[in-house]
Amino acid sequence: MTSQVVPQMATTHPLQVTLDRAMKLEDYIRFQLGPVSAADWVTPAQLVHPNSLPKWVNKIQHNLSTESKVIVASSLLQRYQWQIIVAGISCYLLDRRVPDLSPDNLRLQLDDEEGVRALALTRGTFTALATDPAANHADVHTVASQEALREVLRQQLEGHFGWVIDQLCTHLGCKPRGLWLTVADRCAATFIWLMQELEVATPVDRIEHEIDGVLRVAGSPLNHPKIGVFTLTYKNCTRAFLDRASCCYWYREKDGDYCSTCPSRSQDDRNQRLLDYMAQEYNNTHT
Q1: pLDDT single digits (tens) 43-85
Q2: SS3 letters across the chain
Q3: Is the pTM of this model over 0.70?
């Protein structure tokens, strides 16, 4: 009697599990793992290549009615950075895993406005805690503590955006300082948003602890004293918000305006607009 070979079920890659969890948080989060072959996926190097940049730059100059190098470069970076920052921070917060954000590991899919609408990680390599259930997986590098993992996240963000900012400064002739503010603001905002998305009543000191560990590190280009966290309370509901250091330039768009958290608004004005937003959210969930 011959024994029957039972086919083995393929096991989902542990990083794919985390990416799937992240995508459930927000419809605009679009990740995939593994090589891509479709022509509408580009590498970061292709996107910031001198042959590709003019199309992107011309669109920004037209939409914002400006030729300012720093405004154009900052706006380009804002269209580029969101999916990448969310990938790193969401995986870290959800499962204490940090994906490889090296430019050569990423593929990008653009929307009609030349912004990044989806992100692919071509390799499954990631860093995790030694206690991670997938610690023995071939694609995993482990570290001993959450502090060490947070340091890996910072290094991944600095490494990727250091390369992007260098490319933009070289090709557009702008300075890096303002561009790092744009990245740091988005990183802080992502921590604030995701931590409260995962746990509505997340204590602000816990949010600040994570931000401190990634952004407020001596010598890091992400470190800037203007970036902060403040809280507002409406009907016993307290939420944290970002005290921004950079501008999104939405006010320069046709029919645009200064956004609610714009640093050009007074603190009282920002507070009132955010309290109005909290009141609307409260009414939507209590009616």
Answers
A1: 999 999 999 898 889 989 998 999 999 999 999 999 999 999 9
A2: CCCCCCCCCCCCCHHHHHHHHHHCCCCCCCEEECCCCCCCEECHHHHCCCCCHHHHHHHHHHHHCCCCHHHHHHHHHHHHHHHHHHHHHHHHHHHCEEECCCHHHEEEEECCCCCEEEEEECCCCEEEECCCCCCCCCCEEEECCHHHHHHHHHHHHHHHHHHHHHHHHHHHCCCHHHHHHHHHHHHHHHHHHHHHHHCCCCCHHHHHHHHHHHHCCCCCCCCCCCCEEEEEEECCEEEEEEECCCCCCHHHCCCCCCCCCCCCCCHHHHHHHHHHHHHHHHHHHCC
A3: yes
